[in-house]
Write a structure and sequence with these properties.
heterodimer; A: alpha/beta; Rossmann fold; Arc Repressor Mutant, subunit A; 2 domains; 4-stranded antiparallel sheet; 13 strands; B: 445 residues; Beta-Lactamase; Heat Shock Protein 90; 6-stranded mixed sheet; 53% helix; phosphorelay response regulator activity (chain A)
């Protein structure tokens, strides 16, 4: 997933970006509402971790702005405001979950996963089968004939993206966006490198290359 | 003890004094009127008698004559009766309404009361005849009664009017006080706005000013306390959050099972515990300073669901929470929502901390709107059970919390008039601990 973190506490932001990134997500981190708005104007994020007390305003303003649009970005509030009225107000205004600082990073990524599951389209099955390959989106695993394959976080991110809609073609740009944050320099053939590695693990026929357009899972042989 | 309103006290006191005064006055007026009327009638009787005596002395010269009656036209029951009696006691002449026998045998000059008449015996000019003039008692009594009625009855009839007037005047005079009372009563339940100008009398204006000064100070103190709590939470939670996150990331860099890794995990564990302690101390500080000040109407079930959902997420809390709403969707109560959140969170965290690992904490919604939180644990010894709501008293499960959870909950419950019933063991079991939270005047739907 492409995740936006809006957090003004530097040491916390660094750690959260690193920890969430370890799960294979592309994470952008900003410390102000203004920067976050600018990023959202250019990148289509799947998830946002939103602090409420920010130097240039309240995170609630951004929450309300996002919920006024048709964007289906999942939002998890991460804040020091611990009152039940703050929590109910945040959830009422459209946040999907609310976690109070100091929080455990493992709990944070668990909650991100839980919210992401809720956001998954009903058409997106928890399990996706392409040939001999089974993709378990809930447990973030890929297996062949019941044997679990060892995928890196980046490789899983590509499989997760492609398995959202088997048969749909994802462009190299879309895969780049899902893989890398804004501050990362992406080599021109990085996507091809990861696709190549994935094919070695899952088989050459699972991921098809559509010349000049991108990549997709081969839906002719799956469910 | 029965309470009385100020207007009732003033009205009843003034009316008691006025009515008592009127009664005493009525009695005095009645007595005086009776005396005066009697005196006037007696004077008239005496005057008539003495004039008649003079006339008799000059006209009657035949003692022992047969009794005769002087017939007068239009003699009624109120007409004076007279007798002229000779020395032997024989009635020589009498009015037609006088009895045949002499009114009085004793020839003592003056007034005498005989049946049906008050009689005056005039002093004789000569010893030959005596004149006895009698006034019918009925007439005299009627005259006295009428005179008394004329003087007393208006006073008695005027009493209800006096009562109504006193009530009207007192109520109008106390209206500014009622306005002030209503405004003061509206304060306190989250409303600390100053009392607006009410056109009050001078005596109440100073009270209004003092109240407004107090309200301003209270509002400032509460705002400062809220701002402090929010600032303290922000200033403490953010660095703690950063510290915990950095330590956790550091721990991922350590080789598994290494001594350094164990030490980093220890730091992370202590940081988590420090975070919980800071949270409890902030809550305890807020509870002790009267956090449950507001009396807003809110849905208790929303608070319960949000808390259960939040605490159910936390993998550190282990065994989970089962909620049994019993078909109840809303419980509307009056209180401070944030304080209620703190109270219920402490009770739930307490149940999770001390509950058995294989038994979930159960949150049952009772038909009367009560929230019953139960967990499995060994029954608490009576000595500890009695002191559980005191600060820094811990149960006997061996799981060490801050020792503040139940003290915070109990403190907030007291401030909001919420009933908190603790019990251990649970009914029908030799184990367990339960807390039942009941708000006053809750409305269940």
């Amino acid at each position: 997933m492409r995740i936006l973190i809006v957090e003004d506490e530097y040491d916390l932001g660094v750690a959260v970006q690193e920890r969430v990134g370890l799960d294979g997500h592309a994470v952008d981190w900003f410390t102000t509402l203004e920067d976050a708005r600018a990023a959202m104007a250019t990148v289509d994020y799947d998830f946002m971790l939103l602090d409420l007390g920010l130097p240039d305003g309240s995170g609630r303003d951004l929450l309300r702005e996002v919920r006024r649009t048709s964007s289906d970005i999942a939002i998890l509030i991460t804040t020091a405001e611990d009152q039940i009225s703050d929590r109910i107000a945040g959830l009422s205004e459209g946040a999907d979950d609310y976690i109070v600082k100091p929080y455990d990073l493992n709990e944070l990524v668990a909650r991100i996963a839980a919210v992401a599951r809720r956001y998954a389209s009903p058409r997106r099955h928890a399990h996706c089968r392409v040939g001999e390959i089974t993709i378990d989106r809930e447990n973030r695993s890929v297996s062949r004939d019941g044997e679990r394959l060892d995928l890196t976080a980046r490789e899983w991110s590509i499989m997760e993206l492609l398995s959202r809609s088997p048969g749909r073609i994802y462009s190299r740009q879309q895969i780049d966006t899902a893989l890398y944050a804004l501050d990362r320099d992406v080599d021109s053939n990085t996507v091809e490198v990861f696709i190549s590695r994935l094919r070695r693990k899952v088989g050459n026929t699972v991921i098809r290359t559509i010349r000049g357009r991108g990549y997709c899972l081969d839906a002719r042989d799956g469910a | 003890m029965k309470s009385w309103s100020l207007s009732t006290r003033i009205i009843s006191s003034v009316l008691m004094v006025v009515i008592l005064g009127l009664l005493i006055l009525s009695v005095a007026v009645g007595g005086f009127t009776r005396y005066e009327v009697t005196e006037r009638l007696d004077n008239s009787l005496q005057e008539v008698s003495e004039r008649l005596q003079t006339a008799v002395e000059t006209r009657l010269h035949d003692p022992g004559a047969a009794s005769s009656i002087a017939w007068l036209p239009e003699v009624g029951p109120r007409t004076l009766a007279y007798q002229i009696v000779d020395v032997t006691g024989h009635v020589v002449l009498r009015s037609q309404n006088a009895p045949q026998d002499a009114f009085e045998r004793a020839w003592r000059t003056g007034f005498a009361n005989v049946p049906h008449f008050r009689v005056y015996v005039a002093s004789p000019v000569a010893e030959k005849y005596r004149v006895l003039v009698g006034e019918p008692t009925f007439h005299r009594r009627e005259a006295v009664r009428r005179a008394m009625l004329i003087s007393v009855v208006p006073m008695l009839l005027f009493m209800p009017v006096i009562w109504w007037l006193v009530r009207l005047i007192v109520r109008r005079a106390l209206r500014p006080l009622d306005l002030l009372h209503d405004e003061m009563r509206a304060r306190g339940s989250g409303n600390l706005q100053p009392i607006p100008p009410l056109d009050l009398p001078d005596e109440l204006v100073s009270i209004q000013r003092s109240i407004n000064t107090l309200l301003a100070r209270l509002e400032a103190a509460l705002s400062t306390e809220r701002a402090f709590a929010a600032s303290a939470a922000h200033e403490l939670r953010n660095p703690l959050g950063a510290l915990l996150a950095q330590v956790q990331m550091l721990g991922r860099l350590m080789p598994a099972g290494s001594d350094t890794g164990r030490r980093v995990e220890l730091i992370a564990d202590r940081t988590r515990r420090l975070g919980r302690t800071v949270e409890k101390l902030l809550q305890f500080s807020r509870a002790s300073s009267g956090v449950a000040f507001r009396r807003d109407r809110f849905d208790l079930m929303t608070v319960v669901h949000v808390l259960v959902d939040d605490l159910g997420h936390n993998p550190c809390d282990g065994q989970g929470i089962v909620i049994a709403p019993d078909g109840i969707h809303h419980i509307f109560v009056h209180g401070d929502m944030d304080a209620t959140g703190i109270m219920l969170r402490n009770l739930l965290e307490n149940a999770l901390l001390h509950g058995g690992h294989h038994m979930p904490v159960r949150v049952a919604v009772l038909p009367d709107g009560g929230i019953d939180i139960t967990n499995d644990c060994p029954a608490l010894p009576p000595g500890i059970f009695q002191r559980l709501t005191s600060p820094f008293v811990r149960g006997g499960t061996g799981n060490h919390g801050s020792g503040l959870g139940l003290a915070i909950a109990s403190n907030i419950a007291t401030q909001m008039d919420v009933t908190l019933r603790l019990r251990s063991p649970l009914t029908g079991s030799a184990r367990g601990f339960g807390v039942c939270v009941t708000f006053p005047n809750s409305k269940v739907t």
